[in-house]
Recover the amino acids of this structure.
């Protein structure tokens, strides 16, 4: 089969690792990421299967423009956000899985906003940026590489997330 040919080719030349190797070496990263976003071990296992089945069906998705872990991290985040959106249970799952964030509040409780409420109202791109920046503590450079935009654009997106958080906090 295709995977067997890839495995044989990988053993003959020092090219990129085959899917089985990637699974063995990085599958735990996918599960950990999915568990952190979804807050559910079973769903994290399902995301692991989705990600690697998708790569098995379409191995050309990984073009080698970034590290394998960076690619899997982004793919896992997208799969988790899709799951949240598709099930129309986004607010409930996020409320259970993500602790409240202090978004630009300077520690003021009145400016604090429940992450689940915010993420449930944000467009997908802004929700991803909010997760990467506020939950994961990633730098603008790291986020820019992950989502394929400039560092400056990431800064603009973070500002938009903060503005939306303030608007929702005032409305609450």
């Amino acid at each position: 089969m295709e995977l067997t040919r890839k495995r044989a080719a990988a053993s003959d030349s020092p090219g990129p690792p085959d899917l089985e190797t990637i699974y063995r070496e990085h599958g735990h990263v996918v599960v950990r990421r999915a568990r952190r976003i979804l807050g559910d071990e079973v769903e994290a296992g399902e995301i692991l299967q989705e990600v690697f089945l998708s790569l098995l069906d379409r191995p050309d998705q990984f073009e080698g423009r970034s590290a394998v872990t960076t690619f899997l991290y982004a793919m896992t985040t997208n799969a988790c956000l899709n799951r949240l959106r598709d099930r129309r249970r986004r607010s409930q799952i996020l409320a259970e899985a993500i602790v409240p964030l202090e978004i630009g509040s300077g520690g003021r409780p009145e400016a604090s906003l429940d992450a689940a409420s915010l993420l449930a109202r944000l467009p997908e791109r802004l929700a991803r940026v909010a997760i990467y920046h506020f939950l994961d503590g990633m730098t603008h450079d790291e986020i820019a590489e992950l989502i394929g935009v400039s560092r400056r654009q990431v800064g603009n997106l973070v500002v938009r997330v903060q503005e939306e958080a303030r608007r929702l906090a005032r409305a609450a």
Observations:
- The chain has nine helices and no strands.
- Residues 99-172 form a domain with the Butyryl-CoA Dehydrogenase, subunit A; domain 3 fold (CATH 1.20.140.160).
